[in-house]
C-alpha cells in the first residue's frame, strides 16, 4: 500500500489544537487534563491554556518496539486522574487505535479527544478535529526540520548557456 505524508506545521497544529479546545467548551467543566506523552503534550498544553485548566497529568504508553507493533506497556501511570471521571485525555492522533484503547482501559470514565484520527482508530475517540487517510503518515512539526534543497541549475554559467 502506498504511503503518503501529511506535513503539519506549527501554525496548523496551533489552529487545530485551538479548534479542539473550542469544540471541548460545551463538555466543560473538566477536573484536569491527561496528556498522552509524548505526542499529546503540546496539544494538551494549548488546550489547557484555552480552557483555563491548570491540573495536567500524563500517561506514558509504549506500543512500538523498533518497527514492530508490540504489546502496549504503561511506563508512567496517571495517578492523579483516578478512573478518569471528570478528566479530559488529549493525544495528537489515533492511528490503529491501540494506544487509545489501552489509555481508555486505564481511565474508563475520561473523555478522549485528539487532533487527527485515521479510520481504524477513530471510533475510539470521543472527539477529533481532522480525519487522515489510513495510508498517510502524519509528520508533526517536532518530526521535521527545514532542509536545504539544491537549485535545479547549479551555477550562473549553466544559466547563460
Ligand atoms: O493509534 P496508534 O496506532 O496506537 O498510534 C497513535 C499513537 O502513536 C503515536 O505515539 P507513539 O507511540 O509513536 O509515541 P510518542 O507519542 O511518544 O511519539 C501518537 O502520538 C499516538 O499516541
Ligand atoms: N508521527 C506519527 N506518529 C504516528 N504513530 C502512529 N501513526 C502515526 C503517524 O501517522 N504519524
Ligand atoms: Mg503518542
UniProtKB/TrEMBL annotation:
SUPFAM superfamilies in the cross-refs: PRTase-like
Pathway in which the depicted protein is active: Purine metabolism; GMP biosynthesis via salvage pathway; GMP from guanine: step 1/1; Purine metabolism; XMP biosynthesis via salvage pathway; XMP from xanthine: step 1/1
GO MF entries: xanthine phosphoribosyltransferase activity
Amino acids binding xanthine: 95, 138
Annotated ranges, domain Phosphoribosyltransferase: 10-145
Domain of life, per lineage: Bacteria
InterPro entries: PRTase-like (IPR029057), PRTase_dom (IPR000836), Xanthine_Guanine_PRibTrfase (IPR023747)
Main localization category: membrane
Cofactor(s), by name: Mg(2+)
Keyword Transmembrane helix attached: no
Topology with respect to the bilayer: Peripheral membrane protein
Binding-site residues, guanine: 95, 138
Residues that hold Mg(2+) according to the record: 92
Keywords, in A-Z order: Cell membrane, Glycosyltransferase, Magnesium, Membrane, Metal-binding, Purine salvage, Transferase
Localization in the cell: Cell membrane
Assembly, per entry: Homotetramer.
Record function comment: Purine salvage pathway enzyme that catalyzes the transfer of the ribosyl-5-phosphate group from 5-phospho-alpha-D-ribose 1-diphosphate (PRPP) to the N9 position of the 6-oxopurines guanine and xanthine to form the corresponding ribonucleotides GMP (guanosine 5'-monophosphate) and XMP (xanthosine 5'-monophosphate), with the release of PPi. To a lesser extent, also acts on hypoxanthine.
Protein name: Xanthine-guanine phosphoribosyltransferase
Organism from which the protein derives: Acetobacter lambici
